[in-house]
Specification:
With about 250 residues, the chain is an alpha/beta fold. The protein has seven helices and five strands. It has a five-stranded parallel β-sheet with strand order 1-3-2-4-5, sandwiched between helices. The protein is globular and about 55 Å long. It comes from Actinoalloteichus hymeniacidonis. Pfam families: Creatininase (PF02633). InterPro entries: Creatininase-like_sf, Creatininase/forma_Hydrolase. Its cofactor is Zn(2+).
Length: about 250
């Protein structure tokens, strides 16, 4: 397969592959996910989506696909009051990503795709992608994996991925069921969810909903497998397109 893993490759192989290859950088977080999901949920999911997508794309890619280790720590200060969270400040996280991207460029990399697995990382990731193109002369693609989720994969009703709700809980049931604890019962849909054209930020709201959205009790491993497959297939398509255009 046309796949390399950065941490399993020698410097010689990387020096040879980087100028024409595409580097894929998964970015996650370690943060509270309600009383039922592990703190590494975002990192586990984004790594799984990236691995599956690269495996699908590799045999059809015109370029070597090079996966870096995931950036496990993200910008999660809004979850610190709950405990169980390891967070970098917005500024530190941005600088960490910039330093990683700088290292890729200095090693010979010219094409990068950042795949994000945590909502709190969106601002820094966008900033880093833009700065990297200017500072390091890199061609950079950026995606939040859940934004690639095809509507038809969600069933009869639209699916709005939340935090530690049905979407992420189903993913973890499919990936690592043994890590999922007893799930909270049904309740009203969180007010933190979609309001057309508005993104809400509020520590008080997170406290009122106990740090998780919607209804994790509706999750199942079968749904999770279907949704993981859909996200991975969508990302694989994007990687193939980016390999041709970056």
């Amino acid at each position: 397969m046309n796949v390399m893993r950065w941490h399993g490759s020698t410097r010689e192989r990387l020096i040879e592959a980087l100028p024409e290859g595409v580097v894929i950088l998964p970015v996650g977080a370690i943060e509270q996910h309600g009383p039922h999901l592990p703190t590494g949920t975002d990192t586990l999911i984004v790594q799984a989506v990236v691995e599956a997508a690269v495996a699908q794309a590799a045999d059809h890619s015109s370029r070597q696909l090079i996966i870096t280790p995931p950036v496990a720590f993200g910008s999660s200060d809004h979850h610190l009051p709950f405990g169980g969270t390891l967070s970098l400040t917005f500024e530190t996280f941005t600088q960490v990503l910039l330093d990683i991207v700088r290292s890729i460029a200095m090693g010979g990399g010219r094409r990068l795709v950042i795949v994000n697995g945590h909502g709190g990382n969106k601002g820094p990731c966008h900033s880093v992608a833009e700065a990297a193109a200017i500072r390091f002369d890199l061609s950079v693609g950026y995606a939040d994996y859940w934004e690639l989720f095809p509507a038809e994969a969600g069933g009869n009703s639209p699916l709005v991925p939340g935090h530690a709700g049905v979407f992420e809980t189903a993913m973890l049931l499919a990936l690592r069921e043994e890590l999922v604890a007893d799930r909270p019962g049904a309740r009203a849909v969180s007010e933190l969810q979609a309001m057309a054209g508005i993104t809400l930020h509020s520590r008080d709201r997170w406290r009122r909903i106990d740090g998780f959205t919607d209804e994790p009790g509706r999750a199942s491993a079968e749904k999770g497998r279907r949704w993981l497959d859909a996200c991975a297939a969508a990302l694989a398509d994007r990687l193939l397109a980016l390999a041709k255009t970056l």
